[in-house]
Amino acid sequence: MTKLLSIWCNTHFEPPLIEMLRRGIGSHHLLQPQVRNKSNLALGAPDPLLVEADIAFGQPHPQQVIELANLKWVHLTTAGYTRYDTQPIRQAIRSRNAALTNSSMVYDEPCAEHILSMMMALARQLPQCWADQATKHSWTSAEHRIRCHLLEGQTALILGFGAIARRLVELLQPFRMNLIAVRRKVTGDEPIQTFPDSRLRELVPQADHVLNVLPSNPSTEGMFNADLVNAMKPTALFYNIGRGTTVDQAALQKALETNRIGGAYLDVTETEPLPPDHPLWKLPNCWITPHTAGGHANEFERIVQHFLDNLARFEKGDALLDRII
User: Fold this and answer.
1) Residues in contact with 95: Cβ distance below 8 Å, sequence separation at least 6, in sequence order
2) CA distance 11 to 32
3) CATH number of the domain that 51 lies in?
4) Do the beta carbons of residue 52 and residue 31 sit within 8 Å?
5) Rounded distance, CA 117 to CA 216, Å?
6) Are residues 185 and 253 in the same domain?
7) Does 129 lie in the same domain as 274?
């Protein structure tokens, strides 16, 4: 019989999902702090209950992840793991033969669909037409028709190549685009031509669409800098559903203000929320959504199910899904 485990969870799931979690863990013991995070993105405070846990599900405090030798496995409720991407945490987890996993498989589909939706919308001038509907009610058919373009034959450059990028490639391939990517370490199993990120400067001028799905970590901070912004085609579009800190936002803003590039779509910004008086809001060639790319109606149900799927693997000693460490 599998050893009974204590599973700590600091995410505030609604009662039906807590019941789903309780049923799914079976005889294992569920530990819930009195104060739980309503946002699955929020960092939890240090919690004395975590001392009793074998498994942490949610967003445990990083210092406790380092210090608590009892933790055999930490499963994050997010795809991003910046606060846990440190040498002390990696060293602590490896030293006790533990594991750190995330929820990338929950977010690859919505994020990939989200960026595809915006690519198609901008190709067909939909935001511009909707702006006319909301303001001047003008029937500027010829003006919009001539600015529409086909994705077929265009080049899309993907920055970063994790789970989201892999699913995005699957969605884009039927459009017969030229798809290329850069990543820190090329593994050779990528389904499209992929280059080390040191080649980024020579690839950017080829792209009609620059798709940023980079995570936030010290190596990606400001990675898409002013030089790369200014190397883009004058007609190129920049999309960011990765992290705002990976881009020189001031340089991007200047390029948009001077029509140096075709436009930008931002689901993430350097500071979130983006201040209401920020100039980016008013630029006609910049489209903004409030970090909604990963959102979907059954998001939290899928987070719970992903954890339970991984728990079954953990119990059997099988390879964990979305393993980081």
Assistant:
1) none
2) 8
3) 3.40.50.720
4) yes
5) 23
6) yes
7) yes
Evaluate whether residue 177 is within a structural domain.
yes
Percent of the chain with pLDDT over 70: 99
- Please report which residue ranges of 52-103 form alpha helices under DSSP H: 62-67, 87-95
DSSP 282: G
Q: Pairing relation of β-strands 155-159 and 99-101?
A: unpaired
Would you give the end-to-end CA distance of the chain in angstroms? 27
Of 180, 210, 205, residue with least CA distance to 195: 180
At 313, is the secondary structure helix, strand, or coil?
Answer: helix
pLDDT-based confidence at 66, cuts 50/70/90? very high
User: Residue 1 above 70 pLDDT?
Assistant: no
Count how many Cα atoms sit within 13 Å of the Cα of residue 45 in the half-sphere of its side chain.
7
127 prior amide bond cis, ω within 30? no
**CB contact set of 301 (below 8 Å; sequence gap of 6+):** 17, 20
What pLDDT digit, counting tens, does each position of 7-53 carry? 999 999 999 999 999 999 999 999 999 889 888 878 888 999 999 99
How many Å separate Cα 312 from the centre of its chain? 25
Angle at CA 85, nearest 5°, toward 196 and 110? 70
Its domain, for residue 305, covers 6-102+297-316
- The residue among 161, 251, 153 whose CA lies nearest residue 200 is 161
- Count the Cβ atoms, other than its own, within 10 Å of residue 116: 17
pLDDT tens digit sequence for 109-122: 999 999 999 999 99
List of residues 6+ apart from 217 with CB closer than 8 A: 82, 85
